[in-house]
UniProtKB/TrEMBL annotation:
Protein name, UniProt field: Fucosyltransferase
GO CC terms: Golgi cisterna membrane; trans-Golgi network
Pathway assigned in UniProt: Protein modification; protein glycosylation
Main EC class the enzyme belongs to: transferase
Domain Fucosyltransferase N-terminal: 56-164
Matching Pfam families: Glyco_tran_10_N, Glyco_transf_10
Family statement: Belongs to the glycosyltransferase 10 family.
Keyword Glycosyltransferase: yes
Membrane association type: Single-pass type II membrane protein; Single-pass membrane protein
Record domain Fucosyltransferase C-terminal: where: 177-349
GO biological process terms held by the UniProt record: ceramide metabolic process; positive regulation of leukocyte adhesion to vascular endothelial cell; regulation of cell adhesion molecule production; regulation of insulin receptor signaling pathway; regulation of leukocyte tethering or rolling
Gene Ontology terms, MF aspect: 4-galactosyl-N-acetylglucosaminide 3-alpha-L-fucosyltransferase activity
Gene this chain is encoded by: FUT7
Catalyzed reactions: an N-acetyl-alpha-neuraminyl-(2->3)-beta-D-galactosyl-(1->4)-N-acetyl-beta-D-glucosaminyl derivative + GDP-beta-L-fucose = an alpha-Neu5Ac-(2->3)-beta-D-Gal-(1->4)-[alpha-L-Fuc-(1->3)]-beta-D-GlcNAc derivative + GDP + H(+)
Amino acid sequence: MSKGMGAPACTMASYSMITMKKFAGAMFLLGAVFLNLTFLAQPFHNPSRTQAQNRSLMVLIWDWPYGHALNLTGDPCATLCSIKGCQLTWNRNLYNQADVVVFHHWALQHRRSRPPASKPHPGQKWVWLSLESPSHSNDLARWDGVFNWTMTFRRDSDIFIPYGELVAQPSDEVDIPEKSGLVSWVISHYHHTQQRAQLFRNLSKYIKVDVYGRANKKPLCPACLLPTISKYKFYLAFENSVHRDYITEKLWRNSLLAGSVPVVMGPPRANYQQFIPGDAFIHVDDFGSVKELADFLLTMNESRYQRFFEWKRSFAVKLYDSWPERFCTICQCFPSLPQGKVYHSLEKWFWS
């Protein structure tokens, strides 16, 4: 398993300076370097912007994520990610000056917004953003030939924004919360036709599952979520649909961070192992039947159970749930993003 997995890497760019033997020579060289850097900055150039504005990359967030306003005061990218020269704005009046414009598919899908008819200059890039699975992303064909870059949970996105990752953090001790229950599940949107709902009903025939969430009229307050789940040995990290790389907070926060062994239903085991060690979770596909899965959970001895937490000796969970941090990733990735790219079929790419 690789470390980092290409997740948002908020690192400050470093620069080196050449030391000259003579002060006068150094001043001359620095002047030349300054002129060269000004020339190299031309890809960011927008004729409608002032010289001072050209020092920053401007990212315009066209739609608030799920309609929730963000606090973008100050310099969030410098504060959160040590990224300088990255200006985030929601002010559509700055559209003509923006280098990058981000459109959230949730708003497009629900007709809450519409992109402008055209770009103000050829250098402006449009980003299609979605954290929902293809099964819950409708009307994709409407945007064929519109967007330059994608920003999703998919590892092959131009801008990769996973729900979480394991970061290197060696530890001599493995902390396992005290357990008083066997299996829990938190579910807000329950539809009986979903694969996860069918699996839950079949599993419930052989093992008791304590269900929380709005769907079961047992909601948990935000501060109650992790302490409640941590009391259970296993957590049903069932995704609402099965797609490549679609591994959400159900694994990262509700299971691994809470200290409960995830029983996952989602993409194949091999896909999960591109994110976490293979001995850190239980995949429903590992069993020939639901009864076999239930028997495995019911007969688990303590020694075997503790081995699921060996990953804690080397890693810690890092959640990516800050929207400003996600948007700052655009500036982090910008120098290496492909130029001249257009998605002629978002649907074909997203469902591949």
